Fold each of these.
Amino acid sequence: MTQKGLPLIFSAPSGTGKTTLREKLKQELPDIEFSVSHTTRPPRANEKDGVDYYFISKEAFLNMIDCDEFLEWAQIHDHYYGTSRTTTEKILEMGKDLILELDVQGVESLRALKYQGVYIFILPPSMQELEKRLTGRGTESGEQVKKRLRVGEQEISKSHLYDYRVTNTNIDETVDTILAIIRAEKNRVDRYHTDCPEIRKLIESEPS
Amino acid sequence: MTQKGLPLIFSAPSGTGKTTLREKLKQELPDIEFSVSHTTRPPRANEKDGVDYYFISKEAFLNMIDCDEFLEWAQIHDHYYGTSRTTTEKILEMGKDLILELDVQGVESLRALKYQGVYIFILPPSMQELEKRLTGRGTESGEQVKKRLRVGEQEISKSHLYDYRVTNTNIDETVDTILAIIRAEKNRVDRYHTDCPEIRKLIESEPS
């Protein structure tokens, strides 16, 4: 029997370095899958359908809601975002670990469902540094940066919903910490797996 | 304010490679402290007082029990074994991580006290391998080996008391897994520490 994959749920305020982190994790963990969300918002210039998101119509999205097809979904401003339940389950059933990048609202939904996974929140080293990174992008107005900072503050104040908090000061150290978390979690007592039947029998004799 | 050290509680059935593991961890983690237990049993040929154990008289031990000086203690056959509460606390208060090697009975006591720490159980790859290692030592009779195996089986069947189970197949991999566990645990949401007052304030604003 294949052991089920581990769902790793990540959130990071805008400007914390989520995109770089994702790229580095893809390099370090070639076998890990990244969940692709569905959305009704139009793709940005560099975004690809099926890679960044599945870009679908509002009608198709509402239809998926009706069919209970989403593990979690949310309406943010005028657009819908959601994580497909069947796609996610299929990957995990294959024994593959899966990274889900969600916002805090998505995590609140999963926690309410008692969805089993490892929840990791990425923090900036300081709010000043976050502002610097957001301004440095040069893609947003001062007003937009301020708005993102306020949202970031709200998200950080909800980081108690997660299992781990990781400060992204140095990206390589952050990656190492995440690799350590994954390695540790695979040895958690409730996830422990052994191929040795004798030892499995001893472990399974434990009172539940 | 110094952040308190992390207590790491280890158990490993006899023959699992605990001694080698301890030596490797001392090399990898020069700053970590190893708890030294008190015992009334006589030292073995290669054991040093204050290093392997504090070897004390039965009278002194019973006196320490009366003074509630032990975090946990147990009588095994004719001898007493215990972990000093003040020594342990002093190390942790200094911000140093501390490795406590305990038997399953000791862990049961600490769990009953809801003692906060990271509990790690080391497993052999198989019972056959454990027998091979115990026999290979050449220090014990066949009867003694059998007895140790039975005790080992009992211990493994209680490994659900721990947070992590680590199979010691390859000592270097085991050490890496333990280092990963320590790194991960330091990022656990309830242990998270940041020097940034702004972020600390946001985190502390969270509903408890």
Amino acid sequence: MMKKVLKFGGTSVGTIERIQHVAKIIKRDYDAGNKIIVVVSAMAGQTNDLIQLSKSIANDFSKRELDVLLSTGEQITCALLAGALKKININAQSWLNWQIPILTEGDHTNSRIVNMNVSKINNFINEGVAVVPGFQGISKNGEITTIGRGGSDASAVAFAKLFNADSCEIYTDVDGVFSSDPNKIPVAKKIDRISYDEMLELSSLGAKVIQSSAVQTAMMYNIPLQVRSTFTDRKGTTIFDHENIDYSKSVTGVAYSKNDAKITLIGVEDKPGIAANIFEPLNKAQINVDMVIQNISSDQKTTDITFTIKRDDLKMTKDILNNNQKIKYKNITHNDKVAKVSIVGAGMVSTPGVTYKMFKALADDKINILAISTSEIKLSVIIDEENTLNAVKKLHTIFELD
Amino acid sequence: MMKKVLKFGGTSVGTIERIQHVAKIIKRDYDAGNKIIVVVSAMAGQTNDLIQLSKSIANDFSKRELDVLLSTGEQITCALLAGALKKININAQSWLNWQIPILTEGDHTNSRIVNMNVSKINNFINEGVAVVPGFQGISKNGEITTIGRGGSDASAVAFAKLFNADSCEIYTDVDGVFSSDPNKIPVAKKIDRISYDEMLELSSLGAKVIQSSAVQTAMMYNIPLQVRSTFTDRKGTTIFDHENIDYSKSVTGVAYSKNDAKITLIGVEDKPGIAANIFEPLNKAQINVDMVIQNISSDQKTTDITFTIKRDDLKMTKDILNNNQKIKYKNITHNDKVAKVSIVGAGMVSTPGVTYKMFKALADDKINILAISTSEIKLSVIIDEENTLNAVKKLHTIFELD
């Protein structure tokens, strides 16, 4: 007998037939004697439809009312799934954000779950399946809040943590976590086991299978996560603690993102506080700066600073750099046709030559590296966008991920 | 300065453009210095769509979960309308069933509002417009409940009563209450003032402009109702107390329903308890029996009982009458091509000859009367369905409603 949190994403509950299929998956686990809390997303497309409705009233639609609006999506799935479970003779009940309650802190549309009352649901799951909404909660003033797109993963982990669950299973529309995007890189393979760290790097690099903040919370409280498919019986990926991982492979996955732009400020005065002057106004404008590389310039009095941003933010970034009196430089260049390719692996740090191997592989294919950034378990390079898929495939082969 | 409850039905908030239009109507009243509570229905079609979803899982979908499901409809309208009001610079806020809370008693899908906490909203409407959901509430156990189709009218009246509002305005897609259905009877005219009693008879006879239980509550607490159009500036109909009505006209309106069937049991033993034996099993099967007429039979030991039901219930009714051992009769006949036509007027009781005038008018047009039923302010006849519109037009002319 285990206490389990099962989370089903929007595609998994996207139609009535799929909701009925999900009910059967839950029944299998319930009939095996487990205590079950099910966290659901809104049916696929519904959240976008509701956002569209709000935008047709106002682009700056009230965030408080947006939360009231969007939270209906998961409420609908809760009711339908609880009804589908009852239809196959499982005692099931929906519990809404205010009925539990799920307490959150933070701003509307961007809250985080801080606590919930577990006693009523703990009683109920002795005799039935509790179905609860992902993505939402209530503030201490009793207002509906939501926790950001993809927040149902974070909800599932919060439930697993606060209910002391033995496992947290994220059911989704793919078989698990892959060494790279299997739709684009046919040689990509499913990863059976991956550490929290590696998963975090992979998700922050664009692997969308599970939300980063959910992985962070799971890591902090050491909650093993399982990512698996709603539509097949395959085993999925287990995300867990470093120490339980076999590091015979130095690299676990290759990630890439193609919506980047690179900006270089040439001839920036090389004195303390300069970087802060540059990045403070960007931060204020909510422009997310990703990689930052600083080189000494030839004259040794000035320096060149290169950084990458989302391509959509390029125009605003340039406007800020051009109009801010505090930011002084000789010249500015940009390239909006770049991509970031990264290799990720907790075993990298103990395996010599990974860096060299990567650079050589790219050089062999005449792929020019425009910038480099490293961390303990990740190595990212910026390259011309047109070379992305070639680079990813090559790195897959070199690091034996095929 | 008045305290007003404004209620907008599903058609009135059926699209974003209409919600924006409704916001302007509210602004006009708010700018005039009134304190305003707005009760909204789900956007037109949404409740039906949700019911369809539930039915595709199970025809006997859990009523508890159906309430959870359906209540999202009004929640969506609340959020969108509050957002639309804010967009035009009105301080507005949505309040959900559990936030107020709106307390109900009774079964799921069929509850009634018994109380609510008025203090928070009373404070809020000093500085802004409160937008609240119709059709729903919560039980004393904190479960979501709904109060039946069309229940938003009853919600509006409950708000008007509990908040001691000066007026309750029902905005809908017609100009007000008509002497008959204006889509079918072109000579039908809008009624400016009508008593609660008359309105009750008209609604129970098929005039769908406002829900009967809402009128009942309004009558009980003497809350004047205004029915008016969201889409025109016309004056609408005021529904209020008997005593304030001018009875120069004996008949206020002509109603009809076309989905009736008539059953006659011939030769039923004429002794106490017989009628109960017949109607108890029908009641159990939730078959709504409308008119009942009993005649003495020629042999004086047996009697004939005629009653009308909804046409959809005909088969089930006949099955029950055929298979129930307690119900004894010589013969059974039925006619499923009948309609009920009624004249309604609080002035009827004090105006001699109304009954005669009606029967003569129908006889003049060779319309055969199959059954008759009367009340203090209503006179209904069952006729062949094909004569319905002719009868209604004729009665309109005879009673000078054109």
Amino acid sequence: MRPYLAPRSVVVIGAGQEPSSPGHRIAANARRAYTGDLAVVRPDGASIAGVPGYRSIRDVPFAVDLAVIAVPAAVAPLVIEECGQAGVHAVVVITAGFSEQGAASGTTDADLVAIAHRSGMRLLGPNCFGIIAPAVGLDATFSAVPPTTGGIAFGSQSGGIGLAVLAEATERGIGLSSFISLGNRADVSSNDLLCAWVDDPATDVILLYLESIGNPRQFLRIARHVASVKPIIVLKAGRSTSGRRGAASHTASLASDDAAVEALFEAAGVIRVDTLEEMLDLAQILAHQPAPAGPRLALIGNSGGPLILAADAAEAAGMQVPTLSEGLRSRILERVPRAAATSNPVDLLATVGPSEVADVVGIVASSGEVDAVVVASVGVRPHEDTNLDDALNGSEPAAQPVPVVISIAGIPARLSKRAVFRYSESAVRALSRAYGWTRWKERHAGAANDPATSEEPIDWLAVRRLVRSEAQACVDPNRWLSPDAGERILYAAGVHLAGSAIAGSESEMGECVARLLAETGQVVMKAIVPGLLHKTDAGGVILNIADTDSAVAAYRSFVERFPALTGVLVQEQVGAGVELLVGARQDPSAGPLVVVAAGGIEAELLADRVVRAAPLSVDQARSMVLSLHTAPRLTGFRGRPGVDVDAAALTVSRISRLVSAVPELVEFEINPLVVSATGACAVDARLRTDIGLNTVRPLRGN
Amino acid sequence: MRPYLAPRSVVVIGAGQEPSSPGHRIAANARRAYTGDLAVVRPDGASIAGVPGYRSIRDVPFAVDLAVIAVPAAVAPLVIEECGQAGVHAVVVITAGFSEQGAASGTTDADLVAIAHRSGMRLLGPNCFGIIAPAVGLDATFSAVPPTTGGIAFGSQSGGIGLAVLAEATERGIGLSSFISLGNRADVSSNDLLCAWVDDPATDVILLYLESIGNPRQFLRIARHVASVKPIIVLKAGRSTSGRRGAASHTASLASDDAAVEALFEAAGVIRVDTLEEMLDLAQILAHQPAPAGPRLALIGNSGGPLILAADAAEAAGMQVPTLSEGLRSRILERVPRAAATSNPVDLLATVGPSEVADVVGIVASSGEVDAVVVASVGVRPHEDTNLDDALNGSEPAAQPVPVVISIAGIPARLSKRAVFRYSESAVRALSRAYGWTRWKERHAGAANDPATSEEPIDWLAVRRLVRSEAQACVDPNRWLSPDAGERILYAAGVHLAGSAIAGSESEMGECVARLLAETGQVVMKAIVPGLLHKTDAGGVILNIADTDSAVAAYRSFVERFPALTGVLVQEQVGAGVELLVGARQDPSAGPLVVVAAGGIEAELLADRVVRAAPLSVDQARSMVLSLHTAPRLTGFRGRPGVDVDAAALTVSRISRLVSAVPELVEFEINPLVVSATGACAVDARLRTDIGLNTVRPLRGN
């Protein structure tokens, strides 16, 4: 990846005579400040925009680190091949017309990557917009705006968003350490970028615009590590049906279920933003200042309105606006008019000037009573922003204890070392996102959150063998395993199941009932009727069977009621408890996931569910279960006793480890998991494998 | 109110020599373009900023329509008095230091109003920032930015927000028809502004920044009328605890419960925005274009990323991005490259120029397939916004069928006749808010939504008399009426109640049970124990009593269990049904409200409730009840039959009319209302009056 961050020499292949052509603009941009060797290659060998030209990559008189390819799609394969033969280290393919247009040129993305890899080259693109490597002064994009150097690395799956962010970053005073347009991500992916940027000393903050995540398992593993070191801000587009329609025609990438993506990002410690504006707002703060260490904000300004709006935004975003201590309030009042409101929001009134505001900010920021300061003021004088910024920069101590963000309503935000916003609400929202990252780091730290070490080991090799053998014995065309097989697999993974047996006839049924009644006090009988969805509603479940006579009566009622009856499930009757649904799946866009939902007859109506990326430690599983709205059913409410939440958490954790460790289990569901005062017991489980359904292929690298 | 919209002559009283003093700046601003007679009054009678000066209002040689008062607080009462004597029609009091500072000057807001009203003058302020009346070229504020003339009327309860909006309106090309800084709203209120602006032909759109609503009953009545004519955009600050702390010290106004305010705005047809930015975004659209008539958006651009973000924002905001018809798609493809994506989002690719974009916008906007067009593009060339705006203005038909909003990522938004945004998400969000107003107008039209005519009349006079007599008989210090009295009042308002009686002894209890059993099949017995909260949990409710023996046994168990037992409620046992809680109250910040919540044992846990402003028609009450998350309990789910939703709606409507018609009923609750297949029956009701608690005063005008 180094050639993309700091190439030692660059050749632009396919620079046109026409100044508006992409190759020409790239050559012209590169020439501006690049410190390495630079050349263009064109059929006539002419110089372009003052950059020396050659007829072929072979004629270039220096060793080429990076080749930027902007030739027509038809010749791109040949050009990549020649680059490889000439010893180029890496290529950027600007050219479009491959997989994103249904391989209009007759060549797929995979074809290009295969050619590049044959010579050991990495390939960025195709259909991308170039790179910027400020470390070596290189702008190899066709952006009209020269970038500023700074600590932000930005990777974009959309050229248009790349262009927009480059332009706005400059306007907002955000400097870049690296910009990479990912295009079709045929080879170099956002995962590669994360790996490169985490070790790049020039990069403090990582920004990604993504429309899909190619390899979510790897993304989780890598991002989790990177996020513990540097903030990763992701704008993930394509939440909506029509947005995905756009994404599909735009980059031919697979759509994501947004709840799944949310779960992945939450687990990975990624700071997710909803809009481009929020991404830039957050970058503007983190470019120069640390994330808040806690939720406490001081709001300081010269007018009540913006302060109240900021306070509203703070509480809406889960931040706090604590009342300041009497001591601190008197220290503030030493500097400003007595009529000022000092409880927080701190309204210094319209007459105060920049230096008094800066004094008060300094006092409050270093008080230890807040984790960030938002100046939410109104521009009553010209150059209020510049003056205030200067005053703040002049007055504060060198090691600033907490982030300070300025918002000045009514005047345009200008270039500033510090974040200057127009709207106090935006500043507050951005700080709350940054604090979300702090909270994630706190939660992420500590062994209690490591699924691998927090619980006794499971013999995954044995579980995997069992899955394979059961899958091979499976006859269902959709690859749902028999209840029996599913039970064995869950048992091997440490999940406690209700005892059960299947009977195909009245006499078999009698035997099953007798055996189970000997072990337990009561049994349940469930009709097995193919295609019957809501068994309970249809009278297909009979409870409280305590003797064989009732069992026979129940059996006969099933026979009468369901002509399509194929058998009867006889099951240990699990005592009263709270019913949960626990599911898991391999999500193509977000990797292994686990879902916990409120169960029981009103499950669909309540729609109370939580999705998390797997695996989860027992602690994480407990917090997941307790984040259900109906969690008081588990912990007890209105005098009702609680149930064994720990047992539920243990089950969820094991299920999450199962789906994470055994990718061949593509989907499964326990419904219900009955959680009682003495434990958690799975009553019904369905498991589906992809063995025999598709060839199991290693996932393509993202 | 006319002197505030178009004063014929203006005097500024208290203009200082110092150019930075408020009075001086107001005089200077007024002089710039005011078409009427203008003077200043100061002790020395000197001219200020070129405006002729006089020693007293009596010396001014023309009849004074409006006096702007910026004198010290101590002399303000005298100055107002003199204005009245001199025949001034209305005053604007800039001076602060009255009720908002605990009447620091020794004078309250009410004192000032009393003086003004004695001479028949209206009073704006005190503690305000002035007015702008573009109809007569008057800027009587101390804003640094000269306003532009246009169709937006803006009233602000915060001077700072006023200043900020004035500055930004100019920057965004939003012109004003009127600006009024409300200050402490001692006399002139936002309700007065609404009444004035609805008939003002220069005003197309109304903007309000409010921190509280003084007279919510009147606001509802007035705003509902105005909103059916012109859009009212309200930014209501002070949602949060700390925000209200700010509001309290800022304008001494009462805090609001935000759900109550939300209900009021929903009923009034107000477009509520969450942030200052959203208010300006929406004003920018509605200043020049109509609100969308439906939810269907076309998204057109030159790059996939911003289009996908716009589509995500559209669905998140409840708008639709429909696939365009084949016919329309072919017409688009006649103008642009074949590789363009045309399904919607419409991605015309980076090579298209402003004229092609304008052509496509024209085709799509007039197709009848969408209700608004959002151009979500990236600035790839200089002056893209201006060029695109010019092209659109040049190409479109005179009567534009649907609103068209432009967003261009990466370049600053500039002045434009049409709304030009930087972020497509903001444009989409603003359109969705505007469409919310369209939807409200549709719902609001028609007799089905008029509570007064949609149902048979209730004899409110009789109900009010009953409330008064029951309240006079009430002995509870908190003014909760006896169950019996509450029952009579609800019965008079047409609410069906379960039959019940209270017994103080075993023998009384026996009689009650015998009587009720004769009428109904079974009774319930409830222990009456002062201070006992969750009766059911404590064993204080016994069901299914069908004979007097069981009744005696139940009574004795209560005596044993509850030493503090004061009596027993014997009640007709209402058949099985869905339990709802129906409450109502007079909210000081939002007026009469009705609340419907899911009932039953898990009510608190589900926290499923809806709040609406009263009164409601039966249709409105039905839609309120059906908007509960647990509404499927009422309509039937998973094979369970539904219950009598109409009966529930009728009850809710009557309760809403009761709280609306009888302000003396300050709080009441039916818990539960049991809704069965054959009707809705209130089982338990509590009513509280304020008669005898406070003197009943007419609400102060807002």
